[in-house]
């Protein structure tokens, strides 16, 4: 008996590979292809339990209506299957093919029974296998020896290919992704903005390239590393208004470590993110804007991407999100802009920072509301008028006497601010999303710079209304309209900073066309009335054509 059984043990026990074997192709015949034309085979009784997400299993061969029950082999396999529970079909009782079970399909079922009996004997429960069943298996194995050998060869090939893929894959824990944004930009109108002829800007072509490493050690955590090069520059129009969301700072193609963070779940309802470099608000909370695509997708402008108060969050630090329920979450975060600098007025706690608290309410899939508070030191909004960014404004307007002959040193006045934001997005239908926000910032200077300026406060407001049209024209495409007021100084008690007397409006429209799964093309236009909140300035029109490649 032992010698006899050794002949059965040579059959392979790789059942999963059977799903990949095209039985009809092996037989050299051609049939019409359809989804899931091959059966699922199982080798253990544990897999007989109902699976509501996929398909229920069938443990009786007589339930497989497309298998002819007249052949002796069918009767023999039926007995083995029902005795040892070693094969399963589809819930409708068929193999989902358009012909009776082929010899190769039958051989696959036989192979499953051989593996199941092997398992029983290997676990020292051979008394459960009768001599009659062993004899039946030997006869079936002899009759289907050619088909079993072919299956064994296919399994060996699959195993070799799998081993080759594992040996040559990039990493067992890391997924490599990338993104390239190419943009053509130009200023189409605007003669004079604060003494700058905006139309003197030439048409430009630039690119932002990112390589991203997404690593997971446990399956529920993420270590994110991004390397970036970006030579796209904003056009010089004499005001921070209308800046582009995908533009860089220095216009070089030097590659730098642009982002590095680690996200993990502390509990089932608590998520933590530790950021080592280039963190932003969208890393630590939901900015509640359909058009927030981090420059690659959605809005073309910095203002249209998110409420400008969020731009005070920048650098390295920690973020925690506590989900009280599916509808309510609280996000807390602290980011410092110069955490690696040990000099005076720098470091993670003594340098520029932003501290955020946001309550996000999502009572349904259609409605999301965010209530935001940000306390910041030496951070700016990055959009709006020059006066709405007081640190930069004073540096450009005031100078102090130089200590030595040469260019005078710019004045650096520290500011502290408290900002409040209300953001909302409502999905009226699958093809129409209404959104918007309002933001208020109260900023005060913390130094007079030796009497150079007076102490005081600034009140800065901004707002926007957004209209989104998902899947307009084609699946995956997005049309967007943004109307709003970029940050404006509405009140000032600092003598050196006047309030903005007029109101500039920001109009933006774009159409993000989904060319393929990996390519989008986005033409758009930005129109600024009374730029820098000054009616003496001519309107400015900025055109952009952005193409995004994802891989």
From TrEMBL:
PROSITE patterns: SLH (PS51272). InterPro entries: Carb-sel_porin_OprB, Cell_Envelope_Struct_Comp, OprB_sf, Por_som-like, SLH_dom. Pfam families: OprB, SLH. Residues 141-168 form a coiled coil. GO terms for biological process: carbohydrate transport. Residues 1-27 form the signal peptide. Keywords: Coiled coil, Signal. Belongs to the OprB family. This is Carbohydrate-selective porin OprB.
């Amino acid at each position: 008996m032992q010698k006899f059984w050794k002949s059965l043990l040579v059959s392979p026990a790789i059942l999963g590979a059977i799903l990949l074997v095209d039985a009809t192709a092996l037989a050299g015949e051609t049939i019409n292809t359809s989804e899931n034309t091959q059966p699922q085979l199982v080798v253990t009784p544990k897999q007989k339990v109902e699976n509501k997400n996929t398909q229920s299993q069938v443990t009786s061969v007589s339930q497989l209506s497309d298998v002819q029950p007249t052949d002796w082999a069918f009767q023999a396999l039926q007995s083995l299957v029902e005795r040892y529970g070693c094969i399963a079909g589809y819930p409708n009782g068929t193999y989902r093919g358009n012909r009776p079970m082929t010899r190769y399909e039958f051989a696959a079922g036989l192979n499953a029974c051989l593996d199941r009996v092997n398992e029983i004997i290997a676990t020292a429960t051979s008394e459960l296998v009768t001599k009659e069943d062993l004899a039946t298996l030997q006869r079936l194995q002899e009759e289907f020896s050619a088909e079993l050998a072919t299956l064994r060869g296919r399994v060996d090939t699959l195993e070799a290919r799998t081993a080759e893929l594992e040996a040559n894959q990039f990493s067992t824990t890391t997924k490599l992704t990338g993104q390239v944004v190419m943009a053509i930009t130009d200023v189409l109108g605007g003669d004079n903005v604060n003494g700058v002829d905006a139309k003197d800007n030439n048409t430009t072509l630039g690119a932002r390239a990112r390589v991203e490493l997404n690593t997971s050690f446990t399956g529920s955590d993420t270590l994110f590393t991004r390397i970036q090069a970006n030579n796209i520059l904003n056009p010089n129009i004499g005001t921070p208004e209308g800046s582009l969301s995908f533009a860089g700072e220095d216009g070089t193609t030097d590659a730098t470590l642009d982002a590095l963070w680690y996200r993990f779940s502390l509990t089932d309802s608590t998520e933590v993110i530790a950021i080592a470099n280039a963190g932003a608000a969208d890393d630590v909370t939901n900015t509640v804007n359909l058009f927030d695509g981090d420059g690659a997708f959605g809005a073309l402008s910095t203002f249209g991407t998110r409420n400008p108060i969020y731009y005070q969050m920048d650098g390295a630090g920690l973020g925690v999100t506590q989900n009280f329920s599916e509808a309510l979450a609280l996000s807390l975060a602290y980011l410092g802009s110069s955490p690696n600098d040990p000099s005076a007025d720098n470091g993670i706690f003594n340098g520029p920072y932003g501290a955020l608290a946001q309550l996000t309410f999502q009572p349904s899939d259609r409605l999301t509301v965010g209530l935001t508070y940000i306390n910041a030191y030496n951070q700016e909004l990055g959009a709006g008028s020059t006066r709405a960014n007081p640190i930069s404004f004073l540096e450009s307007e005031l100078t102090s006497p130089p200590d030595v002959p040469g260019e005078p040193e710019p004045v650096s006045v520290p500011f502290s601010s408290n900002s409040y934001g209300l953001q909302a997005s409502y999905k009226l239908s699958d093809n129409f999303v209404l959104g918007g926000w309002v933001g208020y910032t109260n900023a005060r200077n913390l130094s007079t710079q030796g009497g150079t300026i007076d102490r005081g406060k600034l009140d800065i407001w901004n707002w926007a209304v957004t209209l989104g049209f998902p899947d307009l024209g084609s699946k995956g495409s997005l049309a967007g309209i943004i109307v709003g007021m970029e940050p404006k100084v509405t009140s000032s008690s600092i003598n050196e900073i006047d309030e903005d007397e007029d109101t500039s409006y920001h109009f933006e429209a774009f159409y993000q066309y989904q060319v393929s799964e990996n390519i989008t093309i986005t033409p758009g236009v930005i129109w600024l009335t009374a730029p820098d909140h000054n009616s003496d300035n001519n309107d400015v029109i900025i055109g952009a054509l952005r193409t995004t490649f994802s891989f």
